[in-house]
Amino acid sequence: MQVITLSDLECDYLNARQCCTKLNIWVIPKLIAHAVLIPAFLFYGYWLLALINLPILGWMTFEFLTVPSGNTGVFDPTEIYNRGQLKRHMRQCMIFLGWYLISFFIYMYWKRGVAPGNWKRVLLVIAHPDDECMFFGPTLVEVVRRGGKVYVVCLSSGEQGGTGDVRKRELFAACSALGVPQADVVVYRCCDLADGPHNSWSPLLVARLVSHHAHVRSADVLLTFDRYGVSYHENHVSAWRGVVLAVRNALCPEHSQAYALETVNILRKYSVFFDCFLSRCTSNIIFIASLDDHSKIVKAMSTGHPSQYIWFRRLFMYFSRYAYINTYKRIIGK
Ligand SMILES: [Zn+2]
């Protein structure tokens, strides 16, 4: 509103007196609202929001207390055109707007708890060791925290990114750091499931493996990539094709449901946790990692997969939304 009022003054739709009267009315209510908001944020545990709003409150108080005597308020009609004050007020309003926007996204990120609570026995079908940390971390951490069991089936040992043995051991270590014991992790090393961005795997073979593990583990939920496989990696897409085939041919336990991790466009992919608002609007099944959860996922990746933790994957773990947010779409049988 302040921006509009100041623009009206700049365009001569309002005179200086009208503009300053309008703006000064809101100075004290805004100050009080911020003073009340900060303890409210602290009370509900939104400490980061309280912290980032503290400088705003400090600045507003300073401005209010240092109004020169004789002026009508923070905005004074006789001074607003002097010494570039109008420009300064405009700039300040834009900074405040940006600040509010960031606060809003942090609030949306923090307001967690829309993950489905009835996922008790989850079978995660991935293509390579490290997929579990890089793409499915928020889900695994949340399911384990709620007392659910997670079983991981890794269809290849990722031999393109290192030796199969090392990567297999790394997967066990990373899963263990995420709360999934080694006994619940299976890694395949098979020439029909060769690792490679252009290697397509037989959907029937994948479907059979998925079906076997889903029955052995009595899985109630199956998770995998979607048709775009996050990065269009052919192995990820093959995992999806196999799960779809298993679901469509009723090869999975009757009570089970399958979900595909949604692939988002590149802008959303690298939007850290700022994608939380759009994710909430577009998906019903959403897992959002807290900052603690995120450090747990990064630690699992860095200590569990040292051979893979090179610079671009380090950046991915901090800037990709998959390290903070997972959203899913149901894979329908018929
Ligand atoms: Zn992968």
TrEMBL record:
Presence of keyword Ligase: no
Transmembrane segments: 31-52, 93-110
GO molecular function: N-acetylglucosaminylphosphatidylinositol deacetylase activity
The keyword NADP appears for this protein: no
Keywords linked to the UniProt accession: Membrane, Transmembrane, Transmembrane helix
Coiled-coil region: none
The protein's Enzyme Commission number: 3.5.1.89
A Pfam cross-reference name: Cornichon
Entry's family note: Belongs to the PIGL family.
The name this protein goes by in its record: N-acetylglucosaminylphosphatidylinositol deacetylase
Taxonomic path: Eukaryota, Metazoa, Ecdysozoa, Arthropoda, Hexapoda
